[in-house]
Design brief:
alpha/beta; Rossmann fold; 4 domains; 7-stranded mixed beta sheet; 26 strands; elongated; RNA binding; RNA helicase activity; nucleotide-binding
């Protein structure tokens, strides 16, 4: 150690003087360097000891700087070679890294001009789990470093001669991960529904559906797998495809370790408990809500003039700006019609609001930009509307042409003539892209490559583009705050907003990310906070038995539908909720026991009498509706009150009735009444039936017609009989009868 320190420190020119040098020169003129070392050896050792002491006492990130050089006499300067002077000027820096254990010291020596970048605690915890061969769930925002743990698991598997599977929810993400991992490790294969490449590789990238099929088939590959990485595991809450993730996790062998990569989810611990219970192995949860690039959130009221910052980089919701934005939207009224509208001839009429915002984004150098729209047609219509804007220079256009030409070479001659290619290529040349599930796979992959290389400045995409693709931009624009989910046109959830807005802000390139939300409907402050600043959506099971699952289970020996149901996350969540539900029941029972009601006995007696009255009314009605009692009063024109179940249709007029033999019991007779009555006017059925109509609301538009019903629908019989036409089949006769009934009902009410 002393010799190493002497190499650096024995050249401190402040130690020697000219007399010493002259004396050494006279005695040993041949070895000047050795003479100089001998003269200052003691001082060098002292300086080395001082340096070691400072190294031991340094904190994380601190470096030991070389002492400032001092001038020496000209005779001594002649003794220092240029190489030694270079070593002296550029020192190796040493960093001391803080450890929790006082008996452990961690130091790192770095070459000159090398910046020390310590691992974040978040990444450090992940790597420890992988080194211990234990499963881990990593939950964090976009660009927070989740990919590190996946790379670490792959590297460890390859080192241990095991195979590893990387699954993703969509083909686009699988394609991207294949390119990244192949560049990193080389021995990587790809298996999707469209493409299979190098299926014998040690690292296989595939969609989750492919993994499920392999597990049902009992593929030999699974015998060699040590780790399975589930990217974007929060996709398990998808109503349509979420069950695929549960099936795959349930069917995996207990010998396989798991890495789950997820966006922030509030119930990560519950998911880890399920996997732990399922496979009898430890599962770690590493969670962080740190976002490397802060976001600024703006609202653009459609038809308005400007952007309103509603959430700043500190995450504070600005009520004043939100109120100002909504007041501007309210003032515009019907003019606030955002997005793409239908023209009279069925074509797409593109609003200029999106074009205005993109032009502003370009002028303020906030590109690249991802524009999320919830419709394929809107994506294409918006892209075409930018026909007057060109974002690429000549060199970039040349690169786009080369990449696009190379990509379409794999297509057949017929496929090269597809209209999709001809329509998209001019857009790509100008730096405008489109990405949705309707594009052919090679075009989608080409768009992803071009955007990743910075050759597309604006990209119109559906929400699937936000599903894990490492394609960040500086700005994200939402063309609408509402989406149609197959059942309802609703506001987007906070989880969907977090997922898509997370594409804004490129780590290491941007100091902030910009998110712009176009709003064309009045939005309350609470709804806005819920969307923009709301908690992430919980990871809830969407498990269900499907025909496909049952057929697959019948092929697997020892596995049945009950096996899947018992081990599903849905069942686990239900069991997990039992203690909390029991606690609430106990609380309510305690409240009931401690409850004191004034005149409780009288109230109980009154309630019992009310219940008896209801029962007696049912008995009376049952008796009254018997044919032998009711039929004698069934005369044409008789006013009767109609109640079918819980639907009260009010008073109607008996037009006719007929007696038929009961189909179920030919010894009994059934009476069918034809009653002229009022009902809700939104029924368009050609043949009106009592089961298809609803009572008309008060002061609401109503229809009237003759409806067939049975005796049990008669609630009351009036003593009033009306003189009605012999046939109530024309609109004129129905109108006259309705006026008489309406007047009579008004008299009854008063």
């Amino acid at each position: 150690m002393d010799d190493d320190i002497d190499v650096f420190e024995s050249f401190d020119t402040s130690i020697a003087n000219s007399d010493t040098i002259s004396r050494i020169s006279e005695t040993k003129p041949v070895d000047k360097m050795s003479s100089l070392d001998a003269a200052r050896q003691e001082d060098a050792r002292k300086l080395a000891a001082s340096l070691l002491n400072s190294m031991m006492q340094g904190d994380c990130g601190d470096s030991i700087e070389a002492p400032p050089p001092k001038r020496i006499k000209e005779e001594e300067e002649d003794f220092l070679p240029e190489a030694v002077q270079g070593i002296f000027e550029k020192r190796v820096t040493v960093h001391t890294i803080h450890t929790d254990n006082t008996n452990c010291t961690h130091e790192v020596a770095l070459p000159p001009d090398t910046m020390f970048k310590p691992w974040m605690p978040f990444n450090k915890r992940q790597s420890v789990c992988i080194e211990n061969n234990q499963s881990v769930l990593v939950s964090a925002h976009t660009s927070a470093g989740k990919t590190v743990v996946a790379l670490y698991a792959i590297a460890q598997s390859l080192q241990e001669k095991q195979r590893v599977i990387y699954t993703s929810p969509i083909k686009a993400l699988s394609n991207q991960k294949f390119r990244e991992l192949e560049e990193e490790f080389g021995d990587v294969g790809l298996m999707t529904g469209d493409v299979t490449l190098n299926s014998e590789a040690s690292c296989l990238v595939m969609t989750t559906e492919i993994l499920r099929s392999m597990l049902y088939r009992g593929s030999e590959v699974m015998r060699e797998v040590g780790w399975v990485i589930f990217d974007e595991i929060h996709y398990m809450r998808d109503k349509e495809r979420g069950v695929v993730w549960e099936e795959s996790i349930i069917l995996l062998p207990n010998t396989v370790n798991h890495v789950f990569l997820s966006a922030t989810i509030p119930n990560a611990r519950q998911f880890a408990q399920w996997v732990c219970w399922l496979h009898k192995q430890p599962v770690h949860v590493v969670y962080t809500d740190y976002r490397p690039t802060p976001l600024q959130h703006f609202i653009f009221p459609v038809g308005g003039e400007g952007l309103y910052e509603v959430v700043n980089m500190q995450g504070q919701f600005r009520e004043d700006k939100f109120t100002e934005a909504m007041s501007g939207l309210e003032a515009l009224g019907d003019k606030a019609e955002g997005g793409v509208q239908r023209g009279r001839k069925g074509g797409m009429k593109t609003d200029s609001n999106v074009v205005r915002i993109i032009r502003t984004i370009r002028d303020r150098t906030m590109l690249p930009c991802i524009i999320f729209s919830f419709s394929r047609k809107e994506c294409e219509a918006y892209a075409i509307s930018l026909k007057d804007m060109d974002f690429n220079d000549d060199d970039e256009k040349k690169l786009v042409r080369e990449i696009f030409t190379s990509a379409v070479e794999v297509l057949s001659d017929d496929d090269k003539k597809l209209p999709q290619l001809g329509q998209l290529f001019p857009l790509l040349l100008r730096g405008v892209g489109v990405h949705h599930s309707g594009l052919i796979p090679i075009i989608k992959e080409t768009v992803e490559i071009l955007f990743g290389e910075g050759l597309l400045k604006t990209l119109f995409a559906t929400e699937t583009f936000a599903m894990g693709l490492n394609m960040p931009a500086r700005t994200v624009l939402f063309t609408s705050a509402r989406k149609f989910d197959g059942m309802d046109n609703r506001w987007i959830t906070s989880g969907e907003y977090i997922q898509m807005s997370g594409r804004a802000g490129r780590r290491g390139k941007d100091d902030r990310g910009l998110v712009i939300l176009m709003v064309d409907h009045k939005l309350s402050s609470d709804d806005a906070k819920q969307i923009i600043k709301g908690a992430p959506d919980p990871l809830n099971s969407q498990f269900r038995l499907t025909y496909n699952m049952v057929l697959n289970l019948l092929r697997v020996e020892g596995v049945n539908p009950e096996f899947m149901l018992e081990r599903s996350f849905h069942q686990f969540q239900n069991f997990d909720a039992i203690p909390e539900l029991q606690r609430k029941v106990d609380e309510k029972m305690c409240e009931i026991d401690n409850m004191r009601v004034e005149h409780e006995r009288d109230a109980t007696a009154f309630f019992e009498m009310e219940r008896q009255i209801v029962d007696y009314r049912k008995e009376i009605k049952k008796t009254m509706c018997m044919a032998r009692y009711l039929v004698p009063f069934l005369h044409v024109g008789r006013m009767i009150h109609i109640v079918a179940g819980t639907r009260d249709f009010g008073w109607g007029v008996l037009v006719n009735f007929q007696k038929k033999v009961d189909v179920d019991d030919n010894t009994q007779m059934v009476y069918i009444l034809k009653v002229f009555m009022e009902f809700k006017s939104d029924n368009n059925a050609e043949v009106l039936d009592l089961t298809q109509i609803q009572p008309a609301a008060k002061n609401a538009p109503a229809s009237y017609d003759v409806i067939a019903l049975t005796l049990d629908c008669v609630d009351q019989i009036s003593s009033v009989r009306l003189k009605i036409p012999s046939k109530v089949d024309s609109e004129h006769s129905k109108s006259l009868l309705y006026q008489v009934v309406e007047e009579l009902q008004n008299q009854i009410r008063t």
